[in-house]
Structure formats: C-alpha cells, structure tokens
Amino acid sequence: MDYVNLGHTGLKVSRICLGCMSYGSSKWRPWVLDEEASQPFFRRAVEAGINFFDTADMYSLGVSEEVTGRALRKYARLEELVLATKVFNPMSDKPNMGGLSRKHVVQGCEASLKRLGVETIDLYQIHRMDPNTPIEETLAALDLLVRQGKVRYIGASSSAAWKFAQALSLSERHGWARFVSMQNHYNLVYREEEREMLPLCEAEGIGVIPWSPLARGLLAGTRKSLDDKQTTTRAGSDAFAATLYDNPHDWDVVEAVKKVASARGNTPAEVSLAWLLSKPAVVAPIIGATKMDHLEAALRSLDVKLSPEEVRALEAPYQPHAVRGF
After folding, report:
1. By residue range, what is the domain housing residue 48?
2. Considering the domain boundaries, does residue 208 fall inside one?
3. Which of 71, 168, 186, 214 is most exposed by smallest CB count within 10 Å?
4. What are the NADP-dependent oxidoreductase domain coordinates in residue numbering (predicted)?
5. Residue 323: inside a domain
6. 42, 58 in Cβ contact below 8 A?
C-alpha cells in the first residue's frame, strides 16, 4: 500500500479510503450491512494496509460510527489510522439537531466521539455548507474543537468553489484552523469539479478525496443500462443516484470504460478508479464495499497505470452536466 500526505499536511493516508456508509443498520437503507456482516471488510482493509476510514454521524443515524469505531479498535492500532467523520445533516427533526451552528457542530462532535469510542477525531468534516449559518460561526466552532484537542484536522465536502475559497480566506485572516481536504463528487461520469474546485484545491494544497468514485456503481460495469434498477439492491433503492446520473450521454462513458477495461484485461471498476488516482489533486477515492470483490477491485486498481491514449478514450465521451451533489 502506498501512503501520501493529505494535502499540505504531514498526515499520511492510504491511496484508498474505505467509506463506511455501507456499514451500520439496514433499517436506514436496505443495502447497508449490519455489524457482523461488515467485520470482514474492516479486517481485510486493515490487512491490505488501508489506514483511512470515512464515516458520518448521519449514516445509519449514528450506528455507522459505532460499528466503525468498534471494528477499528478490534482490528487495528488507532494511532496508525486516520479516522474521519462528518457533521451537518439532521440527526432528528428536532431543533438544533442539524446544520453548522456552533451548538450543533460542538455537540455533534462530542456525540461522534462517544459513538466512535475515541478521544480525538483525526479528520472532522462539514458534510455540506450551511446556508442558514454564517460561515464565520462554523469556522470558529471548528477551530475551537481543534484547540480543545477533540479534532486534529478539519475538512469539507461538496461545495461551490467560491464558498470554499471564502472559507479558506476567512480562516487565514482570523488565524483559525484551515480546511485540509475536500470530499467532493468526482468520477468519470461527473467531471464538473475540474472547472474550478480541483484547480482551487491544487493551488491551495487541499487533498481531494472524492465520494462516489464509481458513480453509485454505474462505473462498475454490472448494469445493463442507465436506468437499470434491478442489478443490485442499492440500484433499486438509491433515489439520490437518480438525481445525479440521468444524462443519456452518461452511458457513453460507461461503454468507453468497458471497452478500455476489456482491452486491458481489467474490470471497469479498476479502470475507473485508476483514472481517478492518476489525477494530481486526488489523494484517495472513498470506496464503498458491500461485496468483498468491491474492495479487492479497489486494491487492484492501485497497480493499474493508464496510458495517455487510454485516458483520452475514457474522457472523450463526456458531456457537460448541471452541477450535482450539493
């Protein structure tokens, strides 16, 4: 396993991040694995050298954090890992149970610490920007958590580039802890981040850790068409995916991936992830795995090196999209 710095920090992370949204309670989403079924994935990830794990408070409404914390304490040495979680989405329909107010950011962090069973969160991320809270309030709250030792680094997820740039500027002006990572929506089917967010992250030394690197499974090559909802449990129940990938040209990209993969003797998933890993700003795609081969394909992708001609073939069918994911 290769390890790289997360942006302009000294924090070493594996080139693959295991996303833990898939582990928790099927009562939250039908495709989520319960604690017992999730254990082999954590064990294999640690054995393979993965030291980067990402979850969020809203995944299974806290159960994902509990399952993740227990598994990592069982199979790994926490001091060697980078454990990431997120705050923003509502944990209930009651007041002050969502958003990025000082109150919710602080109490959300404290609740995550308890569920994870740790004293400090390595990477604490805002799941989205909060239009109802001044960004200064949120940044000051995150800085407080860093100064208190409850959080080591802070990151953000899917945002307009201008808002993210504004946050970085405010942190510098006030001497607050600064975002070190951006967890954004980026894959071969959705490349709008290349316009502004990725150049911003490269210029500012921000580590990019894309979510949905396989376009909610679309780039895994198992579906028969763009609107195929029968192949997997998630495909048939993931309403969010339908809002992300509905452009007929998206299937042209999938076909290009299949063609390159077939010619190389790799799987579409391996080729799609290798393409992401070839991008300078990308530190570690966040991989969701509910079957062991999902994880094994991600590990194999680390050894796939695409030629310039293959990259051009993969990118050629892409058509511009409306902004999706935030």
Report:
1. 3-316
2. yes
3. 168
4. 15-316
5. no
6. no
pTM value is 0.93
Tell me, letter by letter, the H, E, C secondary structure of 65-112. Answer: HHHHHHHHHHHCCHHHCEEEEEECCCCCCCCCCCCCCHHHHHHHHHHH
**Residue 326 forms part of a structural domain:** no
Provide the Cα torsion 235, 239, 243, 246; round to 10°: 40
Closest CA relative to residue 202, chosen from 165, 235, 173: 165
**pLDDT tens for the chain, residues 1 to 326:** 999 999 999 999 999 999 999 999 999 999 999 999 999 999 999 999 999 999 999 999 999 999 999 999 999 999 999 999 999 999 999 999 999 999 999 999 999 999 999 999 999 999 999 999 999 999 999 999 999 999 999 999 999 999 999 999 999 999 999 999 999 999 999 999 999 999 999 999 999 999 999 998 999 988 776 676 655 555 555 566 667 888 888 999 999 999 999 999 999 999 999 999 999 999 999 999 999 999 999 999 999 999 999 999 999 999 999 898 88
Q: Looking at the annotation, which residues are catalytic?
A: 59
In a domain, 230, yes or no: yes
